[in-house]
Design brief:
The chain is mostly helical. It is built from eight helices and two strands.
Length: about 210
């Protein structure tokens, strides 16, 4: 995951709280092994606590947002990937020089929980150097396909975000909400009353002749 250079594009604490609330039921799914669930709960709880830290100063404010966004993104991807594995594979299969997926996830969750605790401590103390150290660890260790600036779901699409050449080439129609869709094909007109009865009568005539 690339370093987040544009701090203005990071989600707001309010958006991150809402996103964390949306993800929590999935992250606390009953199907997760207890050794995973208890560690996920720790990371989720610390992420929520982090968003409540008084954010005095731009460095602390941005650090809280980045740490929370990276935590949510990594948890969603890693826990989601783990739940899609067959249990027998996830619990016991190990590649050469690696642990089984269950143990690897547990190890990473332990490190994530510890790192978030240290981020919380650094923010609470206003220790900017310590905060930068922990953020570097988050960037290097908890990478994923989701950029932290995109962790908050967005449903609003503006016309300037559309590739109009693609819209035209694929024959799409853009609704009032700005979302391109395939046009609904025209439906055949309904048969007049009694039409089905006439068809049945014709079939019977052909059978009896």
């Amino acid at each position: 995951m690339p370093d987040t250079g544009d701090r203005d594009s990071l989600p707001t604490p309010q958006d991150l709280r809402r996103t964390l609330d949306d993800h929590t039921p999935f992250l606390d799914a009953p199907a997760l092994p207890d050794v995973v669930r208890v560690r996920v709960r720790r990371a989720v709880r610390t992420t929520a606590d982090l968003l409540d830290v008084p954010q005095d100063g731009a460095t602390v404010h941005d650090g809280v947002r980045e740490a929370a966004a990276r935590s949510i993104a990594w948890l969603a991807e890693s826990v989601g990937a783990f739940t899609r594995l067959p249990p027998s594979f996830a619990h016991s299969h190990a590649l050469e020089d690696r642990h089984a997926p269950l143990l690897e996830l547990v190890d990473h969750l332990d490190l994530l929980g510890l790192t978030l605790d240290r981020v919380y401590d650094a923010c609470a103390r206003g220790a900017e150097d310590d905060l930068r150290t922990q953020l570097d660890l988050l960037r290097d260790t908890f990478t994923g396909h989701t950029d932290p600036t995109d962790i908050v779901g967005r449903t609003d699409i503006t016309p300037d975000q559309l590739d109009h050449a693609t819209v035209e080439r694929k024959g799409l129609e853009v609704g009032e909400d700005g979302i391109p869709r395939l046009p609904v094909p025209e439906q055949p007109a309904s048969p007049p009353p009694g039409h089905d009865h006439d068809l049945d009568h014709d079939r019977e005539s052909r059978v009896t002749t």
